Amino acid sequence: MSKSRFSRLSMLATLSFAILFGVMAAAPSAFAEDEEHAIKYRKSVMKSLGGHMGATAAIVGGKAGQPGHLAGHVAAIVDISTIAKDLFPEGSDFGETTVLAKVWDEPDAFKRELRMFEAQAAAFGKAAGSGDMAAIGAAMGNLGKSCKSCHENFREKKQ
To answer: Is the residue at 27 inside a domain?
Structure first.
């Protein structure tokens, strides 16, 4: 083998090693960054859920003066209930989050809470479609109880 060919192979091997090392070194931080984004995404979705719930309560309570907006808020709540199960990926239990480790330590109990939330949101959507404000209010109360149950069991208590 010629000296120049050996040099090129040696350089190629060194470059390959450097690239591989760089990728491996970056992988944990990329994973952590992805999980940080997962937490930010979860917070954004939950904040929007709270906003839609607040707006809906104002409409149902007759304080918003925008009864025509009810359907949009209800649809958003129902949609969020269907994606809630995707908001808690493994590894998103660190950093700035109030989610308790129970979410991952007791996955069956947490999944039951999410199924209840989704069922109550669907019932709320059905009631909202009826136009009966008493039925809408009752369904909203049940949905709120579902939210409260999950917060009491799987979220840090606010001080």
So the answer is: no
| Per-residue pLDDT tens over the stretch 73-106 | 999 999 999 999 999 998 888 888 899 999 999 9
Show contacts of 67-73: CB within 8 Å, 24+ apart. 70/128, 70/136, 71/128
Per the structure, the complete domain to which residue 131 belongs is given by: 36-154
Convert the pLDDT of each residue in 143-156 to its tens digit.
Answer: 999 999 999 999 99
Query: Taking the model in full, what pTM does it have?
Result: 0.77
Are the C-beta atoms of residues 48 and 41 closer than 8 Å to each other?
no
- Give how many domains the chain has, as a whole number: 1
Contact call for residues 44 and 12 (beta carbons, < 8 A): no
Which CATH number goes with the domain that contains 138? 1.20.120.10
- For residue 28, is it within any domain? no
Instruction: Give the number of residues written for the chain.
Output: 159
The answer to whether residues 156 and 100 touch, using CB atoms and an 8 Å cutoff, is yes
